[in-house]
Amino acid sequence: PEANAILSVVKLTAGYGAAPVLDDVTFDVRPGEMVALLGANGAGKSTIMRALSGLLRPVDGNIVLDDKAVQALEAYRIARAGLALVPEGRQVFGEIDVRDNLVLGAFSRKDADLDNEIEALLKRFPRLRDRITSRAGLLSGGEQQMLAIARGLMANPRVLLLDEPSLGLAPAMINELFDVLAELRDEGVTILLVDQMAALALTVVDRGYVLESGKIVHADTAAALASDPALEAAYLGRV
Ligand code: ATP
Fold first, then answer.
1. Three-class DSSP category at 61
2. For helices 98-105 and 141-153, angle between their N-to-C axes, nearest 10 degrees
3. pLDDT band for position 234 (50/70/90)?
4. Which of 23, 41, 57, 238 to mutate to test the pocket of ligand 1 (most atoms within 8 A of CB)?
5. Model-level pTM?
6. Is any atom of ligand 1 closer than 6 Å to the C-beta of 208?
7. ipTM
8. Is the Cβ–Cβ distance between 163 and 87 less than 8 Å?
9. What is the pLDDT of residues 114-123, one digit of tens each?
10. Minimal CA–CA distance to 60: which of 23, 100, 106, 101?
């Protein structure tokens, strides 16, 4: 694994049934970085997120978090070790209120200071303060995404994993979302992001990896990826 990395993925192979979707995927995330995984539909981005969070057992390879191999651990142990997934489609608990959703985000911790940590998060996500006693299912899509991210942060993760956070949101809300992500990174939260909005993602992340049919085909700084004409045609032009 990469020295200085907080998360190293080494030669990861994973899939569903016999056919592997991911083939020898290697990348790393360093402390305080925001890193994007980019690629077309079906390239395997969500599959990486599932493998990282223990929802899909890798066939081969290593997932190393803080120098500890976690690929064989059960999902709740991976969460406890510090990988928190904010899944695609938000998946907040719709029948309970916003505060209880945040409390559940800390399920893997024994040290949570709930009142103070929730208060700190509500400063970051003021829309949630106004809705704190609302059932989460009644929030708008954008508010639910903010709640899903805030719930992920309640785990106090070493790396926050965000799978398609902008999916289905209105353009103004997407801009607000990326502003929040940039602020979190500036405060030192380490983030691994999967998003279809490649051009926009490259305006906020530090580095990116481009995935094609389950393989990493480009790895570079966000600025270099954003100005690469080949990538522009393949991925960025669609945005
Ligand atoms: P998208 O943005 O469309 O979600 P993605 O890059 O996240 O794309 P994945 O969801 O990781 O792609 O899917 C990668 C491949 O794995 C696709 O060919 C997909 O059809 C296949 N796949 C995904 N989930 C399953 C599953 N549960 N069972 C079988 N095949 C699957």
1. strand
2. 30
3. low
4. 41
5. 0.93
6. no
7. 0.92
8. yes
9. 999 999 999 9
10. 23
Please give the number of the atom of ligand 1 that sits closest to the Cα of 39: 6
Nearest residue to 185 via CA among 167, 169, 166, 201: 201
CA torsion sign, 36 to 83 to 30 to 218?
Answer: negative
pLDDT in tens, 87-99: 998 889 999 999 9
Do residues 196 and 166 touch, judged by C-beta distance below 8 A? yes
User: Residue 236 belongs to what H/E stretch?
Assistant: none
**Max CA distance (Å), the chain:** 49
Residue 129 in tokens? 């303060």
Give 3-state DSSP helix, strand, coil % of the chain, rounded to 5: 40, 25, 35
Ligand 1 binding pocket includes 87 (Cβ within 6 Å): no
Could you tell me if 205 and 36 are in contact, meaning their C-beta atoms sit under 8 angstroms apart?
A: yes
Q: Please compute the mean of the pLDDT values over residues 20-44 and round it to a whole number.
A: 94
What is the token pair recorded at 121? 């998060």
Go through the chain and tell me how many residues it has.
239
**Cα 184 to Cα 106: distance, rounded to the nearest angstrom:** 18
| Positive or negative: CA dihedral 170, 176, 179, 181 | negative
Structure tokens at 148: 């899903």
Which residue has a Cα nearest atom 26 of ligand 1?
Answer: 16
